[in-house]
Every structure is written in C-alpha cells, then in structure tokens.
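Example 3.2
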Amino acid sequence: MVQSLNTKVDLVADATSFMGLSEYGKVMIGDNAFEFYNSRDSNKYIQIPWNEVTYVEASVMFKGHWIPRYAIHTRHDGRFIFASKHPKTVLRAMRTHLGPNKMFRALTFMQNIKRGLKNMGFTINKKKK
C-alpha cells in the first residue's frame, strides 16, 4: 500500500495521466502534495510535493470554456501531463497551494508555429495599412 504525503485532503477527482500510455485514476490534492493514483494498479502512482513544482501550464481553448489538459513542471523530474473531469476545480485547488504566479496558459497552436518559424530564422511580416 502506498503512503500518502498529504495529511489533509482538499480535493479528490477522476483523472487521466498521460505518462507513456494513458492511465485512469484519481487525483488527490492536499496540503503537502499533488498525488495521482491508478485505479487498477496500486503500484502505479505519482506524488509531487508542492515545493518541487516549478509551474503549472494549462491548455485553454474557446476563451477559457474548455481546459482539455494541464501539465505540472517540476524541478528534477520534468513534466507530468494530466486531464481530469473537472479541470477548473482542480486548477483552483492547486492555485491555493502554489499561488497565482505559478499558473500559466499554454501557447496556442498558431503561437507555437510562429515561434518555431521565428527560431528557424524566418521573419513574419505584418501587413501595413
């Protein structure tokens, strides 16, 4: 059995982890950590302490009406991608522990294309009136 890092639980929600193959389970947000537990296999879990989180990046679509997934960037282990049934409540619960200065929107598709072309050396000329 896995020992939880949290002493007090703020939120438990259904979620999907996108580490390799997608795994279904529960996300638990508590006073000490963000935790994901697989619903089928108890040995598959992810525990991220709040002091290890660098920032959280959320993919926002349709002007904030739909958040398909969010990523947690850590100092040592990289990026963990999750999706949940109610992502707004999960992100709000995370914001209480991290603060609003560590929560960001992900770049849109067109912003990524522009940045990639710019890094390759192409210039994007805007039309002048």
